[in-house]
Design goal:
337 residues, alpha/beta, 8 strands
């Protein structure tokens, strides 16, 4: 049995806390909001963010960050990506040398273009940082539905240790050394999901969504490889796997926000109606900036930014994608002369 704290009591943090407790570990959940802590202690259920998932009586809930961080075998950082830096900064005084932290949020900081693991390493240099990602909606994990995910770490031993903590008959975990590829896929699939949701909101069909998914992963892969990631990572669980589920699922907040935009809502109206952090909105600017930095053509990412931040009509955006200059799907020397 390991002592584990989950830093963040949103839907994903709560679902992972439930999973880890079911695996036999001693679990503490931290929230910055004392009212949320009191509610979880009393109700033993997060009725707003993860309804229907009963939280055991011996699971500890606290707003004391020091007690949550001290003496833990693993810290699971599960706050939304816009709060990763501030939370990590607050954690730093309570984190021991060599402490293993696994980040489970998805995003890129727009003003620095840093991945979340880079941010955590900058704020908590004494820690060892890993990432956990893949096609995994909290609502389904909390119901014990079969899920597969990947953990990335610089050290094989650390990845395998985290793998062992999370593995269960309904939660299969693979390992990978490609932390960068996992994080780029995880962050930018949310932007593609906004586009897929927008297409749904406009009333387009399966053909459109399939096009966005396949061309979306091509864009993200080009960028990730240019940044130093492995191409095969983007065709695995944290790339195409996560992209498919986020573009198609009714649980996806990014798809839902996109759907509302396709229906005519503004970005702010869509985010307010979703009532949860829509991380693709925060990653869109970073994705566009990275595409310019590495000189990678990413038309879907570019168009999504125009819809979100330049009031481009969604229908015009789709048309613009369709009438771009003709392209090859695969650049090859195999053509017959």
């Amino acid at each position: 049995m390991a002592k584990i704290s989950v830093i963040g009591a949103g839907s994903w943090g709560t679902a992972l806390a439930w999973l880890l407790h079911n695996n036999g570990h001693e679990v503490t959940v931290w929230s910055i909001m004392e009212a949320e802590v009191q509610m979880l202690r009393k109700e033993r259920e997060h009725k707003q963010k993860l309804p229907g998932v009963a939280l055991p009586e011996d699971m500890v809930f606290t707003s004391d960050l020091e007690s949550a961080c001290m003496g833990r075998d693993l810290l699971v950082l599960a706050v939304p990506s816009p709060y990763t830096r501030s939370t990590a900064h607050s954690m730093k005084p309570f984190v021991k040398e060599g402490q293993l932290i696994v980040n489970v949020a998805k995003g890129i900081e727009d003003h620095t273009l840093m991945t979340l693991s880079d941010i955590i390493e900058e704020e908590i240099p004494q820690a060892e940082v890993a990432v956990l990602s893949g096609p995994s909606h909290a609502e389904e994990v909390g119901k014990g539905l079969p899920t597969t995910i990947v953990v990335g770490a610089k050290k094989k031993s650390s990845a395998e240790y985290i793998q062992g903590l999370f593995m269960s008959p309904v939660f299969r975990v693979y390992t990978s050394p490609d932390v960068l590829g996992i994080e780029i896929g995880a962050a930018l699939k949310n932007v593609i999901a906004l586009a897929a949701g927008t297409a749904d909101g406009l009333g387009y069909g399966d053909n459109t969504k399939a096009a966005l998914i396949t061309r979306g992963i091509a864009e993200v892969s080009r960028l990730a490889v240019a940044m130093g990631a492995q191409a095969e990572t983007l065709y695995g669980l944290s790339g195409i796997g996560d992209l498919v589920v986020t573009c198609a699922s009714v649980h996806s907040r990014n798809r839902k926000a996109g759907y509302l935009i396709g229906q005519g809502r503004t970005m702010d109206e869509a985010m307010e109606e979703v009532q949860m952090i829509v991380e693709g909105v925060y990653s869109a600017k970073a994705g566009l900036a990275l595409s310019k930095k590495y000189n990678i053509d990413m038309p879907i990412i570019r168009i999504v930014n125009q819809v979100l931040f330049e009031d481009k009509p969604a229908a015009d955006a789709v048309r613009e994608l369709m009438v771009r200059d003709k392209k090859h799907e695969i650049e090859s020397e195999l053509w017959e002369k």
